[in-house]
Amino acid sequence: MTRKADPRETRLPVPAGELPAFTPVPRQTNRHDGWTDDRQRRFIEALADTGSVEAACRAVNMSTVGAYHLRRQKGAESFRKAWAAALDLGVQRIEDVAMDRALNGVEQPVYSYGKLLGSRTVYNDRLLMFMLRNRAPERFTEGRAKGPDAIGKMELERKKKEWRAEWEAERKQVSPAQIRATLDRKVEEYRQKIIDRDRRESPRVKALRAEVEAAIEADRAAGYDCTRDPDHELYIDPNAQNHAEAEDEPTALPPPDWRKREVKESEDAGPRVRTLKDEGWD
C-alpha cells in the first residue's frame, strides 16, 4: 500500500551549520513511503524547528511509533546523536518563543454577548519571572542558582562521594600523637584564659572568691548533705516521708463471716424490755 502525500508535510528552513551531519539508518528495502534517507534528514530538521517528536513526525507524514522504532535499530548511533542535538536546539527555540510571549504578550480576542469586539494584549508576569530566574539566576534569585535538575543532582552526589573520600584520606593521615598534641594545646589555651581572667579581677572579687572556695572546702570536710539541710531546696523531710508511707498502708478488711457472728448483749445496755414471747411471762 502506498502512502498518500500529506499537504502538512512542510517545515521551516533550518539555518545551515546548526545541525550536525549524520549517517541515516540503513534500511533493508528502499520504499518511497518509508524512512528514506531524505525523510530522516527532514525529520531531524523538523525536530530542531519544533522541539516535538510528534510535530516532526507529522511534518514528514510518519508515525511517532515508527520514529522510535527507527531509533532503536542497528546502525542508528549517528541518528540518535542527531536526534539529541535537534532536541537541544528545539528546546532553545521554545525558550525563545516563551521569552517573546513574556515580553510582547499574547493577543486574545474580546467577546461581549457572543460578539467579537476586538482583541487585547495579555502579559504573563509569572512566565516572565520564570524566564528571568532561569536565564539570569545570579540577578533574579537573590544570589541563589536555580534548582538542580536530575543531572545536577547526580553531579552533586558524585562530588559528595569525592569530598568524603578526601576527608577519609586526610583523617587517616593524622596520628594519635598529633590528636593528643592538639587536645593538650586547646587545654593549655583554656587554662591561660582562666589565668588572664583571674588576673584582671578586682581585689574585692578575689576575696569573695576565696571565701566561697573556703566554704566549699568546709562543707566537703564536714560531709554536708543538701537533702538533710532544712534550709536547702532539695531537703527531704523524713517525717513527711513516714507520714506518706502510713497513708499508703491498706485498710484492714473485716473477716468474711462477720455477718454470721452473734452480737453479745452488753451488760451496760440498760433495762431489758420483756415481750410476750419471753419465758416466765404471766
Overview of the molecule:
There is one protein chain. This protein has helices at residues 37-50, 53-59, 64-71, 77-104, 125-135, 137-140, 150-173, 176-200, 203-222, 238-247; strands at residues 106-112, 115-122. The protein is mainly alpha-helical and 282 residues long. Among the domains are: 1-94, no CATH class; 106-140, no CATH class; 177-219. Helix 1 packs across helix 2 (53-59), helix 1 (37-50) packs parallel to helix 4 and helix 4 (77-104) packs across helix 5 (125-135). The termini are far apart.
Shape: elongated
Q: Give the H and E element order.
A: HHHHEEHHHHHH
Percent of residues in helices comes to: 40-55%
Percentage of residues in DSSP E strands: 5-15%
User: Mean pLDDT, as a whole number?
Assistant: 78
Which secondary-structure class do the elements indicate?
A: mainly alpha
Layout of strands and helices, then pairs:
Elements: H1 37-50, H2 53-59, H3 64-71, H4 77-104, E1 106-112, E2 115-122, H5 125-135, H6 137-140, H7 150-173, H8 176-200, H9 203-222, H10 238-247
Antiparallel strand pairs: 1-2
Helix pairs in contact: 1-2, 1-4, 4-5
